[in-house]
UniProtKB/TrEMBL annotation:
Protein name as catalogued: AbrB family transcriptional regulator
Protein's organism: Tetragenococcus koreensis
């Protein structure tokens, strides 16, 4: 399958065929390879950006108190 680059206003457009089932308003990052290839990848959230470090990262304990932990270890 091939698509043809066309001009729309001051931009060039490549269409995405329906068979790829890409939902409308999906954002892509675009890269150009050394060989001239154009690579579109769906935009993903970067886990290292933003203020994630302000959130409480402490995990909740599986055990209600330390005694439960000691009982579990003794039974094994």
């Amino acid at each position: 399958m091939s698509v043809k680059l066309r001009k729309v206003g001051s931009s060039h457009v490549l269409t995405v065929p329906n068979k790829f089932e890409v939902t409308e308003n999906t954002e892509f990052d675009v890269f150009q390879g050394r060989d001239g290839s154009i690579i579109y990848t769906p935009k993903r959230n970067n886990p290292f950006e933003g203020n994630w470090y302000n959130h409480d990262l402490q995990q909740e304990s599986v055990f209600e108190d330390v005694e439960d932990l000691n009982i579990e270890l003794e039974e094994e």
